[in-house]
Every structure is written in structure tokens, then in C-alpha cells.
Amino acid sequence: MSKKYKYKLKKSEYIVLAECISSDQVPAExxxxxxxxxxxxxxxxxxxxxxxxxxxEEDLPTLH
Length: 64
Description:
Blueprint: H1 14-22, H2 28-34, H3 38-48
């Protein structure tokens, strides 16, 4: 079974699209479609999602 994507991305378009997504210029329903492209999704996750933005649960202060 072939996968049908609404969008077909070229690797040369990854950075421009990622910048638009990260600056809220792309509607959520379009982002869902773009992320069906596994190569783009991996690129975006590696380059634009900061794994250090939130502290790990064990590093959070606790109230005693």
C-alpha cells in the first residue's frame, strides 16, 4: 500500500519549513501532514526541538 501525503517535501525545503513551523506560521493540521514525512519529522525533532528546554522530573525542586 502506498502512502499518500498531502505534501511532498524536498530536503532543500526543510529549513524554511521548520522555521515557519517554529514561528507559528503553519496551521496545526498542516504540521500533522508534514510530519507524516518521517525524514522531515526526524530533521525537525533533531534540529528544532530542544530536549533541554524542560528539566528532568528528578531535577525539579520538591516541596517538603
